Amino acid sequence: MNLDQFKLSEDERSLLIEMTDFGVPLYEVLGDVRIAYPDSSSIDQLEIAKRLVYSVIEKGLASLCKITVENTHYNTYEVNDSMSMFVDDIKDLMSQAINWEQSSDAFDSSISYELAPTELGEKVLDEIFNIKHSN
Known about the structure:
- By secondary structure, this protein is α+β, with helices and mostly antiparallel strands.
- The protein has five helices and four strands, in the order H-E-H-H-E-E-H-E-H.
């Protein structure tokens, strides 16, 4: 696989690497953009974050997942369900500024949204880290 075909920006590459071990909530993407672009206005930072998320999704490297969690009797959270969202749902979710400021849904705290690498995204990560797989 040739990484050049994806024309990854430094921001896209960093976001993919951040997804290596855990999903990345939208508020973390925005937080990273605020750190990387401190001189930009908050409106511009939000637009940069949106473009970044759209870009990795459109390239097929990540998907935005809707995750439903449950508080167990040990006061820990377990994932009940995780599903990749459709493009129209993603655009709607990302257009609401509050979804960039918190980890859970504005109307239902048992729902959160995270970016996760797709199978193609995992292959790109393997290339970034130069991981060779045996057949």
